[in-house]
Amino acid sequence: MGLFNWGAPFIVHFLGGHWRRPEAEQLARLLRSFVPSGGRLLDVGGGAGVVTVQLMGALGAEATILDRSPEMLARAPDHPRLHKVVGGAAGLPFASGSFDAVVVSDAFHHFGDLPQVVRELRRVVRPGGGIAISEVDPSGRRRLLVLVERILGEPAHFFAPAELCRFMALQGVSGRCFKLNSTIYLFVGEV
How far apart are CA 11 and CA 42, in angstroms? Predict the structure, then answer.
């Protein structure tokens, strides 16, 4: 956790840019069936809101970023339809069925108790809503990132795409995995 507090400026400047417009538009297209215009989106582990802001615009949605790092949240833009909440993924501070969809972008591998996290994601999404998780493919070009995160003591639960699909199905969320770009893939499932 300390990494994201003291490293917030570095992380936002150097690592936040891999979410380019085409990737965000593809994610928005996949979420459109879950999030109506004016709907509610939750970004768990959303940091400075790089992905969230793009999705808000593309979907015409209201969004909430939840992150454990106040320093990361402080770097998210101020916007009347964007809410920032400090908190953890294993105990989401929201009522059941509060959101049309939940996004976890490049953060799922940081969470400790993944079955509990998925239970919480399912709980806060309305029936028929969606869960989208973008992750680094550990077999791809980002192997060094996987190693560095493990050295720094992060949980580093990296799944290959097929493994994440199987894991999510075991947690009651069936879906599909899509290649987003050369290093990132996306799981999208329905609650």
Answer: 21
Token reading at 78: 């101020």
- Whether 141 has a pLDDT exceeding 70, the answer reads no
Quick one: which of 99, 103, 48, 53 has its CA closest to 80? 53
User: pLDDT tens across 77-105, in order?
Assistant: 999 999 999 999 999 999 999 999 999 99
CA pair distance 33, 35, nearest whole angstrom = 6
CATH number of 2-190: 3.40.50.150
Task: Write out the two tokens for 163.
Answer: 């493994």
Indicate the domain borders of the chain: 2-190
Task: Look at residues 147, 170, 174, 169 and name the one whose alpha carbon lies nearest to residue 158.
Answer: 147
* Selection from 138, 156, 183 nearest residue 15 by Cα: 183
Write out the chain in H/E/C secondary structure: CHHHHHCHHHHHHHHHHHCCHHHHHHHHHHHCCCCCCCCEEEEECCCCCHHHHHHHHHHCCEEEEEECCHHHHHCCCCCCCEEEEECCCCCCCCCCCCEEEEEEECCHHHCCCHHHHHHHHHHHEEEEEEEEEEEECCCCCCHHHHHHHHHCCCCCCCCCHHHHHHHHHHCCCCEEEEECCCCEEEEEEEC
* pTM for the full predicted model: 0.84
